[in-house]
Write a structure and sequence with these properties.
This protein has 367 residues and is an alpha+beta fold. 42% of the residues lie in helices and 12% in strands. The chain has helices at 71-84, 88-96, 102-109, 117-124, 127-139, 141-151, 155-166, 177-187, 192-209, 231-237, 253-266, 300-304, 338-343, 350-366, and strands spanning 21-24, 48-51, 64-66, 99-101, 175-176, 217-218, 276-281, 298-299, 308-310, 319-327, 330-336. Strands 8-10-11-7-9 form a five-stranded antiparallel β-sheet.
């Protein structure tokens, strides 16, 4: 790992009841998820400190605090020293440069996937996103054709993933990944184990890829690059399309294309198979089998017994997952197939998977 500079630029905001200062930042223009950066990355922007005269902070102001080197942080450092042979002093200094950001904690508590489908769909199925997807496909035809032939993953699905995640690389996030992961690892107990693991993976990634861990930028959840890979996904699934020694998912769309395809191939994408089929129902018995599990675990024949049927002719023995999407006038029913489930390995929300699928169909038809 490259030696970490001891001269860190701290953007620290300490809010006291009677004496306030704040750190002013540019408002974020991210979409989720998760749904993000490497050097191969732009240099991190240094936030500036400025006093405020009122006790109420505007929405645009990002409240920040330095990471407290408490026992949890010390335990993490000791684990990294013991397990991965990091330098204790350097790692402690690095973590002291991390900033806990209040806006990250607010964002993680209100994910887009909590919206009803009729609102969620409008975010991603826009004319601009469809047209930009067609453009991205045309500009990267050679890479998409080659990667699709090698992996069996449909090119329109690869394009749609990049469209939903970052608008084809236009909105990759502008949080330092170090800050995002430290905030969620040490200041968000509900997901602390997951994000502590991702912080570990991020530090390993930086050492392996010879990156300064203070530089990569990503989403509020620490997801990175065109495809918004979390550090663990990067380490195991990111690909070097051009074999130039770099897995650059921040600046090289061909590496991003290959990485997304590899992600889907490793999660069992079935070449030439469908994704979802619209369904219809008589009565409301179908509601009794709706749950959060997105894996196909019911046959069409079983659904027929409770009044659900397919709008297309498929085998009665086909394994499907009944998905109900909330529209203004009631539920819109779909049968998720195996490939629909594979999309949810990227993001576990059926809303996300449906947005990717429908965007992919629109782009494919316009191309």
């Amino acid at each position: 790992m490259k030696k970490i500079s001891r001269h860190f630029c701290h953007a620290v905001t300490i809010i006291l009841a009677l004496n306030l200062t704040s750190c002013s930042t540019t408002p974020e223009r991210e979409i989720t998820m998760i749904p993000e950066t490497k050097e191969i990355v732009p240099l991190v922007k240094i936030e500036t400190l400025g006093p405020i005269s009122k006790p109420t902070l505007p929405e645009a102001i990002s409240v920040t605090m330095p990471l407290s080197i408490n026992q949890n942080v010390k335990n993490f450092v000791q684990k990294m020293v013991r397990k991965h042979h990091f330098n204790e002093y350097e790692l402690t200094q690095l973590l002291q440069s991390a900033v806990i950001k209040d806006d990250i904690l607010k964002r993680i508590a209100l994910p887009s996937e909590g919206m009803p489908w009729h609102k969620y769909r409008k975010i991603f199925l826009t004319e601009a996103r469809i047209e930009n997807g067609v453009k991205f496909w045309r500009e990267n035809t050679e890479a998409l054709t080659r990667v699709s032939a090698q992996t069996g993953v449909a090119p329109e699905i690869i394009v749609a993933i990049l469209g939903v995640e970052t608008g084809y690389g236009k909105n990759m996030g502008n949080h330092r990944v170090l800050d995002a992961l430290a905030t969620l690892a040490f200041s968000y107990p509900p997901r602390s184990p997951f994000f502590t693991g991702e912080l570990e993976q991020f530090l390993l990634l930086c050492r392996e890829e010879n990156m300064n861990p203070q530089e990569p930028l990503g989403s509020y959840a620490g997801a990175m690059g065109y495809p918004q890979f979390m550090p663990s996904s990067f380490r195991s699934l990111a690909k070097d399309f051009e074999h130039d020694g770099y897995r650059d998912i921040w600046k090289n769309p061909r590496d991003a294309i290959a990485s997304v395809a590899n992600y889907f191939e490793k999660n069992g994408w079935q070449q030439g198979q469908g994704v979802a089929i619209q369904a219809k129902a008589i009565g409301n018995l179908y509601k009794s089998i709706l749950n959060q599990d997105v894996k196909p675990n019911t046959t069409l024949a079983q659904l027929n017994h409770i009044g659900v049927s397919s709008t297309e002719n498929i085998s009665a023995n086909t394994s499907v997952k009944l998905v109900a999407l909330k529209q203004l006038d009631g539920d819109e029913l779909w049968l998720g197939l195996h490939n629909f489930y594979v999309i949810t390995r990227y993001n576990h929300s059926p809303l996300y998977a449906m947005a990717v699928y429908q965007l992919s169909e629109e782009i494919k038809q316009r191309r």
